[in-house]
Amino acid sequence: MEEKNKDKSINSSDSGDKTKIVKTQKRENAIEPAKNVNKQDSAENINETDTKLSQKENTIPPINKSDNKNTKNKSVINSNLIGQTVKNRYEIESILGHGGLCDVYLAKDKILESSGSESPYVALKVLQKEFASQPETARMLIREAQQTQRLSHPNVIRVFDFGVDGDIYFLVMEYIDGETLESLIQRSRPNGLKYHAMLSILNQILDALSYAHSLGVVHADLKPANVILTSEGHVKLLDFGVSKTHQIKQDQYAAKRKTEDLETLGYTPNYASLNLLSGKEPNISDDMFALCCITYELLSCKHPYSRTPVNEALKKNIKVSKPANMPIAKWPIFSKIFSTGTIPADFNAKTVKRRLNKQYWPLATGVAASLLFVAGLGLIYNQQQVAISDLEAKLSQQNEVIQNAELLLSTSPEHSRSLIDGDASLHPLIKAGLLRLHKPYLLGQFESEIDDVLNSDATSYPNYDEIEAILQKAKGYYPDSHKIEVLALDIQSSKHSTLLSIARQINSHLEKSRYDKEEDTKSIYELKEELNQIHQDYPFVPSSLSSDVFGKHLSDALKDRDAAALVTLIKVGNTFFTNSDEHKANLEISNAMKDAVLEMKLYETAIDSSNPLPFPIDAARILYQDEFDGLYYRLKQARTTVHLDKLVKDVDKFSENFPVGFQDINDLRFQTADKYLQFSDILLNKRKTTSARRAMKKANDLMKQIEQDSKQS
User: Cα 435–440–443 angle (5° rounding)?
Assistant: First the structure.
């Protein structure tokens, strides 16, 4: 009995940690021929008389090979506890499951064993070592146990004990032998459960909700995966340990996924009400809306909105039709809720249970039916022969349809994909059957295609666009496949790591001023192109050191009018620093001067060549506009000949940047000479003859210099 219990699978998660207690299996790495599928494995196997449902073991999806390293590390951590005894009472025998912060083990309760209990096993949830030193995570685990113990009900998972043993924080939960409703729904496809079989499950869920709601506790994440059905037909609700004042926050133990962009973290959007999706505090109506979705899914094996959140479904005007297994008289209970997304004020667990179990068979209906039967008996008799002929023809047609269906379902795994993709007239049920029959093969084929892309030598990095296209195709086949979801997350993580690696290489070059290509090293522009190939318009962010180094080089080049440096820096700036406010002004100046800079660079390059170029006058005026403005300003502000003397020296030095006789320099010297003459007149009026003569001489010297330079040019 003990060995049997240990092999049973459990899918147990409590109020925070999304740890699933499951039996693991070896991952499929290769494409194998599809195994025979028991066609009787459906909801018809349910014993609808005593509501005990056949058990099917849950298994965690195979671990993707890219996670081998992480799995190995995790197993090392887990194996350290196997064989240990916690609190001198709970002997750990094996690992059942992993979560974001906790691991769950199968443990034997020595006290129960010594008392002669037939089932001394419990599920032991243990905080992982790397989080044991963090007080807040330990408090989360303890608070979870306290909150779950508050709910004492046969349809809510029980927490027996919690505490600390050294550095091991743990809580002891009920060990459940059963399967989740999610698994039951999957194996009941495509027809779903019969109504009274569904009702036996729903009544127990309603009892648990009615009890919890009476205590003011709202589940806020009710979904098939959080409901377990035991092999005896009993229902257990999981994750019922967080009160409504806390559930609006993110699940305490649920690890964030990188691809999640919803604000409704902490609950499942596909089962969330408009109230939760809008970010409001959870209330009883949120659980009732999720219950409606579960009811629909049990009867039809389909989500009412095709796994679309209700707010988006209402925008898309998705219509919800009555499941075939739901009595017509019961459909009004749910139809308005699905069409509006709102829950009436009187729609609570007790009311719904009463309405779902009420029988509508008044005596008058039976009497009227009997009278109609007698009245029509004669007419029916006369039409029997015609009806029999019609039925025989229809039966023949149905037999032909069945034979064709059996022929299609016998298609080999290798040819099933081409049949599914190529035959648009293929009946949806046949397509669903092929997908179910050959699921291991088809998933393995998609995985092999992804491996081929990852291992391709055609490019330096994997073609992530092609991989994502393959994953999208796979999701079209199996939208609810956990294996595909895990694989997609692995690919996204790999892509993100690759992008970060390239971005770090670019920043390393920028920080070291490696703006030009060096031997045996990719240039910053080649690396940027690789970024865009992997992710178009990737938002590269330069490091602060890269920005500081670039800013200094750009300022120095502008100050020194270094044409060669400016050309290089303009390209770097326009490629990597266009979004930087720090360099915006200097880049605008540099871009405005770009043509002038290029002309000046060409001139300087050709100076020593056999074909020198003429001096770019217009470009020089643009590049040195600020210097000319500054010299003219000093000329205007000069109040003595001493000021003019200093100005003349600076003009002489500045003129070295231009050819002899440059007109703008001559104009500046001419106006300086005129200012000397003005000072000479003023000095004569003040009877300072010597100073006046000196000023006049300097004016004459400037005029002679202008004349000489003009002749040389």
Answer: 80
- The count of other CB atoms within 10 Å of the CB of residue 295 is 23
Q: Determine the Cα–Cα distance for residues 648 and 644; give it in Å rounded to an integer.
A: 6
What is the chain's mean pLDDT, rounded?
A: 80
pLDDT at 15 exceeding the cut of 60: no
530 within 8 A of 502, measured Cβ to Cβ: yes
**Tens digits of residue pLDDT in 506-563:** 999 999 999 988 888 899 999 998 888 888 888 899 999 999 999 999 888 887 777 7
In the numeric block, which tokens belong to residue 455?
């291992």
Please, which residues have CB within 8 angstroms of residue 167's CB and are 6 or more apart in sequence?
129, 132, 133
* Half-sphere exposure of residue 450: CA atoms within 13 angstroms, side-chain side: 29
- For residues 641 and 692, what is the distance between their CA atoms, to the nearest angstrom? 10
Which residues make up the CATH 1.10.510.10 domain(s) of the chain?
179-357
Look-up of token digits 């231009």: 658
- Cis-peptide into 61, omega within 30 deg: no
Rounded CA gap, 374 and 369, in Å?
9
Amino acid found at 325: N
Q: Which residues of 365-383 are buried (b: 16+ CB within 10 A; e: fewer)?
A: eeeeeeeeeeeeeeeeeee
Return the structure tokens found at 648: 């003349």
Which residues of the chain does CATH 3.30.200.20 include?
2-23+58-176
pLDDT at residue 372 is higher than 70 = no
**Bridge partners of residue 103, in order along the sequence:** 98, 126
| Tokens representing residue 46 in the block | 């349910």
Q: What is the topology classification, in CATH, of domain 179-357?
A: Transferase(Phosphotransferase); domain 1 (1.10.510)
Residue with tokens 């939960």: 173
Q: What is the Cα–Cα distance from 461 to 530, expressed in whole angstroms?
A: 8
Query: Which amino acid would we find at residue 370?
Result: S
Q: Which two structure tokens, joined as six digits, stand for 297?
A: 């899914």
CB-count burial class (<10 Å; 0-12, 13-18, 19+) for 124: buried
Q: Which helix (H) or strand (E) holds 110?
A: helix 110-114
Residue 706 has pLDDT above 50, yes or no: yes
Residue keyed to tokens 């559930």? 247
Name the token pair of 543: 């490091």
Q: 190: Cβ–Cβ under 8 A, 6 or more apart, which residues?
A: 301, 429, 432
Which structure tokens are listed for 123? 């599920």
Q: Is 423 helix (H, G, I), strand (E, B) or coil?
A: coil
Asked if the 2-23+58-176 domain carries CATH number 3.30.200.20, the reply is yes
pLDDT at 363: 45
Q: What angle do CA 309, 312, 314 make, to 5 degrees?
A: 105
What number of H helices and E strands is found in the chain? 29, 9
H or E, element range at 160:
strand 159-165
* Digit-coded pLDDT (tens) for 621-676: 888 888 999 999 999 999 999 999 999 999 999 999 899 999 999 999 999 999 99
User: Encoding tokens for residue 661?
Assistant: 């006789």
